[in-house]
Amino acid sequence: MKRQRNNRKLFTAMTGLAIMVLLAACSGGGKPAAGSGGESAQPAKAAGAGEKVNGGSVVVIVPQDPDYLDPHLAVAAGTSEMMFNVYEGLLKPNEKGEIYPAIAKSYDIAPDGLTYTFKLREGVKFHNGNAVTAEDVMYSYERLAGKETGKPLSPAFASVQSIEAPDAATVVIKLKENNASFLTSLTASVIPKGYQDSNKKPVGTGPFRFVEYLPGQRLVIEKNKDYYIKDVPSLDKVEFRIIPDQEAALAALKSGEADIFPRIGTEKLEGLGPEFQTVSAPQNLVQLMTYNIAKKPFDDIRVRQAINYAVDRDEIIEGVALGKGTKLGSNMSPIMSRYYLDGLQDTYKYSTEKAKSLLAEAGYKDGFSATLSVPSNYQFHVDTAQVIAQQLGKVGIKLKIEPVEWAVWLDRVYKGRDYDLTIIGLDGKLDPNDILNKYASDSKNNFFNYKSPEFDKALKQGLTELDPNKRAEAYKQVQTILTKEAAAVYIMDPNLNVALKKTLSGYKQYPLYVQDMSSVYLTR
Asked: CA 516, CA 508: separation in Å to the nearest integer?
């Protein structure tokens, strides 16, 4: 007997995200985690005031250019932050991390968990006016699975055996093996069959259609008048204004040039006038300092552990995030409550003595020198780097801070793996496997150069295990391995602070790195 799924039951345990967003991000005993400020992890909505006004335009500040407009090639979180409004998949996440129907209206999963059958929603059109068919879905997901090239564009689709379209409204996907995270993978974007120009002229099915992109300046989207949900969106146009410098971004907000400033520095919130409103909550993001484990001395676990002991996370949370951050001990936020393993954040309690002892044991009694490369468009990471440089200096590790442009960071650090240390924020996902699989030995996204057979085995278990409780245990083991082997210095899940004009309402915070403009509207 098949398990029926309809549009009211799509967000089940198979989403892999038992996120429990109604709970605060807590440590043991139900108390707020260190530095959390007691903030609720529930996605916040800006209150707004006054009567709703249909139409109008909004300017949203973002710190970086997209890496690719083609959704199947993009890896930068900042790209999906904007293009979330343009592209959709069979399924789509909401602000609670639940999955609901988008291009699909319903689906069945075979009892063995290997066959997924989707029925498409009627009336869905691409931005070019063409109706979406099963052939478009098959083309998009076969492209991600690398059916023609033999090289999957997305690891999540590597387990796909076949995709069929028995009729224009039905898609059948068969897997080679059980993949408990696969359902969340089907939020991946659907593009028109055979379309080759996605990186210049994106065509999706989302509430907004692409208008233009000027590198270093702006990306503009406009209302999709053919969107299948009535009265969505309200706004006529949204401009994502690319402003890497936080001071320049703040000036644009205060002068009225911009309307929404996501990820505004906590220290800037108090300086805003009464014409602005703010929201702040944990965001399911992991800020970490990672080392290139393929390079000496970071190939020595004792050095990596020494660095962990030498970093005072509490000082960073208080000094850089002004208390609005949740201390972490591995690559997962407490927002992922079903899978999160509490207590790891106390594994490397700050101790310069322990750090010095481990360094001496590894043959670095007098320390060493290294370069810490940080994306200059993220002031939060630059500030964190300055604090860490001071902390490591106390144990003899001399860090040279190298601010690099975002494009350089992506090319040299992320893709080229040419660096000593770096600080970055790894965005949250809907499923624990999608958060942790970048550490797999064969992952193309493993810019840490981390390799661990024990980790790979536990990760595989979590991916193929269909029992929810056993799956959760597998991912807790995965987190423990990362912490034990000091794969990185896990710092915090910094609160997402957003400032916006009081004439706006409907803004939603997600446990994902996205800006959903479909619910935002102007008031008077």
From this structure: 7
**C-beta neighbour count of 249 within 10 angstroms:** 26
State both tokens at 162: 């076949």
The residues that bridge with 508 in the sheet, in sequence order, are 45
Q: Mind listing the pLDDT tens digit of every residue in the chain (524 residues)? A: 333 343 333 333 333 333 332 222 222 222 222 222 223 333 334 444 589 999 999 999 999 999 999 999 998 889 999 999 999 999 999 988 889 999 999 999 998 889 999 999 999 999 999 999 999 999 999 999 999 898 899 888 999 999 999 999 999 999 999 898 899 999 999 999 999 999 999 999 999 999 999 999 999 999 999 999 999 999 999 999 999 999 999 999 999 999 999 989 888 888 898 999 999 888 899 999 999 999 999 999 999 999 999 999 999 999 999 999 999 999 999 999 999 999 999 999 999 999 999 999 999 999 999 999 999 989 999 999 999 999 999 999 999 999 999 999 999 999 999 999 999 999 888 899 999 999 999 999 999 999 999 999 999 999 988 889 999 999 999 999 999 999 999 999 999 899 999 999 999 999 889 999 999 999 99
**At residue 301, what is the residue type?**
I
At 162, give phi and psi (nearest 5°). -155, 155
CA dihedral 62, 17, 230, 201 (to 10 degrees): 40
Say if residues 294 and 4 touch (Cβ distance below 8 Å): no
Structure tokens at 169: 């409204």
Tokens of 288: 């970490």
pTM of the entire predicted model = 0.78
Say if strands 421-426 and 368-375 run parallel, antiparallel, or are unpaired. parallel
Q: Which of 374, 383, 393 is nearest to 307 (CA)?
A: 393
66 and 82 Cβ atoms separated by less than 8 Å: yes
* Element at 108 (helix H, strand E): strand 104-109
Name which of 239, 118, 230, 188 is nearest 431 in CA terms.
Answer: 188
